[in-house]
Amino acid sequence: AREMGIVLKHNFTLKDVRLEGNEIGDAGVAHLANGLLDDQLSSRNASLERLDLSYNAIEKDGAVCAWSVA
């Protein structure tokens, strides 16, 4: 998830990222959120329309972190 967070920081074209069933936990969601937040501030990630994190090991803290980016 750390590497995907880096990818999301530099994303100009990805529209649909499907990470379902990858055992991503709260720490992984934090990495993804950091990548998305950086891009929201610079508006580089306007292309991303869907990020599927279903069937992962995300608990309350990770859900709160993901929701803060939505």
How widely separated are the two ends? 17 Å
Write down the overall mean pLDDT.
83
Which residues form runs of ≥5 with pLDDT under 50?
A: none
Strand line-up of the largest beta sheet: 1-2
Largest sheet: 2 strands, parallel
Would you count the extended β strands for me? Answer: 2
Key terms for this structure?
70 residues; mainly alpha; two-stranded parallel sheet; 2 strands; globular
What is the element layout, followed by pairings?
Layout: H1 2-9, E1 16-18, H2 26-42, E2 50-52, H3 60-69
Parallel strand pairs: 1-2
Helix pairs in contact: 1-2, 2-3
Describe this structure as you would to a colleague.
The mean pLDDT is 83. This protein has helices at 2-9, 26-42, 60-69; strands at residues 16-18, 50-52. Helix 1 packs parallel to helix 2 and helix 2 (26-42) runs parallel beside helix 3 (60-69). It has 70 residues and is mainly α. The protein has a two-stranded parallel ribbon with strand order 1-2.
Summarize the structure.
This protein is mainly alpha-helical and 70 residues long. It contains 3 helices and 2 strands. It has helices spanning 2-9, 26-42, 60-69, and strands spanning 16-18, 50-52.
